[in-house]
Amino acid sequence: MRRDLRFALRRLRKSPGFTLGTVLTLALGIGATTAMFSLVSSVLLRPLPFPDSDRLLFIAYDLPDDTDTVSYPNFFDFRAQNHSLSALASYRSSGSTLTKAGDARQLETEIVSANFFQTLGVAPMLGHDFSPADEQKDRHVAMLSWDLWQSAFAGRQDIVGTIIKLDGSPHVVAGVMPRGFSFPIKTPAPELWTTLSDDADGTRSMAEQRGAGVLSLVGQLKPGVPLAQAQADLGVIARDLAAQYVKENADMTRMVVKPELEELVSDTRPALRVLFAAVGFVLLIACVNVAGLMLARVSRRRGEIALLAAVGARRGEIIRQILAESTILSVCGGLAGGLLAAWGADALLRFVPETVPRLANVSIDATVLAFALAISIATGILSGVLAAWKMSGVEPLSALRDAGRSVTGGPGQHFAQNSLVIAETALGVTLVIGAGLLIRSFLRIESIQPGFDAHNVLTAKLAVPAGHDARIQFYDQLKSRLAAIPGVHDVAASWPLPLSGSLFSISFEIEGRPAAPGHEPSEPMVVATPGFFETMRIPIVSGREFTEADTTHSKPVIIVNQAFARKYFPGENVIGKHIEPGIGDGTIKHPVREVVGVVGDVKRTGLKEGFMPQYYLPWTQAVITWPTLVIRTSTDPAAIAGALRAKVAALNPEVPVYQVRTMQETIYRAAAEPRFQTMLLSVFAAAALFLAALGLYAVLACMVAQRTMEIGVRMALGAQRGNILSLILGRGVALALGGIAIGLAASAALTRQLSALLYGVQPLDPATFVSVSAILLLVGLAASLMPALNAARVDPMRALRDQ
Questions:
Q1: Closest CA relative to residue 73, chosen from 193, 277, 244
Q2: What is the pLDDT of residues 650-677, one digit of tens each?
Q3: Residue ranges of the domains in the chain?
């Protein structure tokens, strides 16, 4: 083996062009695949960073609308009555305002049950865990993340027991979680955890409703208990609760119980699998390309190999010698690919949308390096095995006779190389068609009208102290101050904002249409201030917008969108109808509201979704939260962000302003995932095109070099340069057409896997298939042109003399 490796190194040093081209081709395939694997491994394959993470379970109701939250009373019953879980904890996302030395900071907060950290199997690095007593009313305790401990408290070792001010209330710091701990795993990551003490005893309106799902659940499966048993156990409890509380728990009879990791990556897995398969195609094309180059290289050694066989070289020795050369090339390609992967992984993370979980864990670790080593060795074997197998079976007498007759080595010598070119062209066609479908889909998404005018609109969130009248007064004062800023046209507010990804569904009853208990219709609800529809340029289809006269002392009113009117009042005039949403206004528990307007439909959670029914309540009649500010300007909206912060600080320095962004940025974020998928698959497709063209060029160039004497004879016998040009171009086009035909057939079967990623485009879109075929044919012509021109320039006399 050492002798074979030394011999292979000597031969490779004598062919620097071949060596460099092959190493770079392999580096491209190995580097891209390794970089993509680092993302797939970190997001999909790596276990959650908790002890016994395989027993951590996601638990939710199995409902048609994909609701995955549970009410407080139901959570307490599930926790007390189950027999298959060693622990069951709850959490819900919220926000807290940390006030410190006159400065206010908004924090990502999780309100959790006392056994939350125990369920995850993680203990604080400083201080102590929450206790059951911390779930009782007025037990205000908080757990800090490591990052918050460092940034807000400079890593003070005496932080445990310190009083901090959250939302105006004193909280005792129970401890600090270890560095890197985060749960739920999301972006932005939680900074603070508090107990459900204010919610647990039903003093808040959400906790009073058994049917109001606000909690997410995480459970720890008992050792040795099957997952199916846990699902059956919780299902029995769910059915008992549905029978006991018919109105609140109707249809809540089935449970979803699955590993937490599976749920975490459920939205991301399909896209990452497609992208990893795509980069695998690129690697395969690179291997096929190198296999073709190796075959052409050893074909020129046919006579030499025949002599070796004639003097007694065994077949295994010949195979080993050829594989030694391909192994050296693959190892060098793997080393270069590793460097490319390290750079590529960093570049990849800049474009991955923040909705992809666990991005902080992406790295070139031991698993990724082992993968790179494995595929480097595999590509070496794959690239050299065809050439080794074909050349090791050479019959000495036949090979020497063919070599003496023709440099081409006899009939059929190019069949294997042609087959490789057709194969890599077919792979390239499949990849480019997939990219074409995603491009067309993304263009459709980009052209979607969201139902409002996003130009020159700035949005911002504020954390205003609680209190119905205090919030209304603060908003009125802030609105007048913001309106005085030069360039500001309109100021309004809404919650949740369009395309924010948030939905807040509340059931309702329509006057004259009584519904069975527990079966009331439910649709997303939005609170909006007067002027919101005008500020967002959402058209008023009929009726009126909210006005300053809509207060807690005036008639309760409601506005619905067109989709709501079509669904619940088809062919009717909805103005004047009465609806009773299941939400109060602070004075009346569930007031019956009169429909005073119908507005245009807007996209609520995503661009690809259809327009869903929804209804709007005036904020002054439903002050359940602080809405997001919406400011329309005549200039660049981002330019007034500083003035906005200054106005808020002047009004109340303890009110933080956060998530300040333009509405166009919100739309850009809404299309982040399809943009990433399209961009990455397009890059892979471009690499596949390049490699396929390179392979075709290499085969034709090799063919021209080997058939120089034949071309000289043809020209000596009267063939014109145009005939030679047509001969080579025809060969290239024939190979390209063969690959295109096979690629189209493969694409017809494989593109169905893209269905979940497409919008407004069918997997068998004829326009994409035809356009990609034309592009590949043009690429084939371009790759064939240079070898054809070289062949047409052959001097027949010199060719015959040299041979």
A1: 244
A2: 998 888 999 999 999 999 998 999 999 9
A3: 1-39+276-411, 63-253, 414-447+668-803, 464-655
